[in-house]
Amino acid sequence: MAIGLTALYLHIPFCESRCIYCDFFSSTQGDAVKERFTTALCSELAARSNEACGNSISTIYFGGGTPSQLPTRQLLRIFDTIHANYAVETDAEITLEANPEDVSTAFVKALMGMGVNRMSMGVQSFDDKILSFLHRRHNSDKARAAVREISDCGIGNISIDLIYGLPGQSIDGWQKDLNCAFGLPISHLSAYSLTFERETALWRMHEEGFVEETDDEISLRMYDLLCSRCEAEGFGHYEISNFSKPGYHSRHNSSYWNDTPYIGVGPSAHSYDGKDVRRRNASDLEGYIASEGLTGHTLEVLNEKDKYNDFVFTALRTREGLDLKSLEERFGRNRTRFVNEVAKRHLRIGLVEKNGSILRLTRRALFTSDDVISDYIIID
């Protein structure tokens, strides 16, 4: 009998082409490799089912890469393997990331038949010039059509991703992107400030002087516009970069922030046992396939400092905030005293707000959250 809940993440590393800003582990190899990968993934799923420890699976998330690049027959093999080896909750949230160009009525209907009830669409922008610059394969018309097609098929839980602070993007352009987004039948929006990740094509363009980073003040205004618009549209701001209609927050992503154990399969996937151990699979597709999903991985055993840092960092990223009572129960009075001392300074300058035992970042601090939260982190 199931005794608790576990989340399941599957990393599908395939992309038709690589976007210039992306540093996620991915491959542009073709169908023959996808077939072999699916065999390896199913092998890993079966081999690691004991890590659920009797828990049932509450959420399943296909991320990447581009999971919609897998043919439906391979996705069906994966789902069959999941159900043969894990107890999946009847109301499990099952998400698949997709790119607009992969969406068709037949594909969405097939996904629904497998149990997919949530789709996350990598739109990034509704400006065709920006999409071309980013090396995205869809245009704005295709993005809008894909979202509507998913909705028309009967999936009511649709998320889209947008990026702001893009080269050539103006405040007015960002406003138009938001207008387009909220003109569609979406229930969730994730929006991220562009970062120049090392070794990406975008980073190299920046290093060579072809592209400049957007001024922080402009990006801050874009973030403020995002927050205001989402609030006006009834989308709750539940995490720094995530907004949703009531009842449509990402249950899977929330598991990363509330200490739920999760199993990650596929090359580069991360796992956490809910107690002391984190695991990361090697970022090696060929090795993964050759070993039938049992390739190398690294384990990290968390000490009390690590657990404290994770607890504080994830809690302060959410609008639920950091519960100081829970902090003291788990980590003792000294840690709580330290947090309160830091919070005194942040309260004076408007970076946090306190309501009873709950400490939250203010809206002003959300844009620079990493800098603010770092003050609460124990280094040694």
Commentary on this structure:
GO terms for molecular function: 4 iron, 4 sulfur cluster binding; coproporphyrinogen oxidase activity; metal ion binding. Keywords: 4Fe-4S, Chaperone, Cytoplasm, Heme, Iron, Iron-sulfur, Metal-binding, S-adenosyl-L-methionine. The longest helix has 17 residues, at 31-47. The strands form 3 sheets. Strands 7-8-6-5-4-3-2-1-9 form a 9-stranded mixed β-sheet, sandwiched between helices. Helix 6 (171-182) links the parallel strand 5 and strand 6. It has helices spanning 31-47, 72-85, 105-114, 128-133, 140-153, 171-182, 201-207, 216-232, 251-257, 285-290, 304-317, 324-331, 333-348, 363-366, 369-374; strands spanning 5-12, 56-64, 88-98, 118-124, 158-164, 188-193, 236-239, 242-244, 262-265, 270-272, 277-281, 297-301, 322-323, 352-355, 358-361. It is globular and about 60 Å long. The chain folds into 2 domains: 5-256, Aldolase class I (TIM Barrel, Alpha-Beta Barrel), CATH 3.20.20.70; 304-380, Arc Repressor Mutant, subunit A. Helix 1 packs parallel to helix 2 (72-85). The chain has 15 helices and 15 strands. The protein is an alpha/beta fold and 380 residues long.
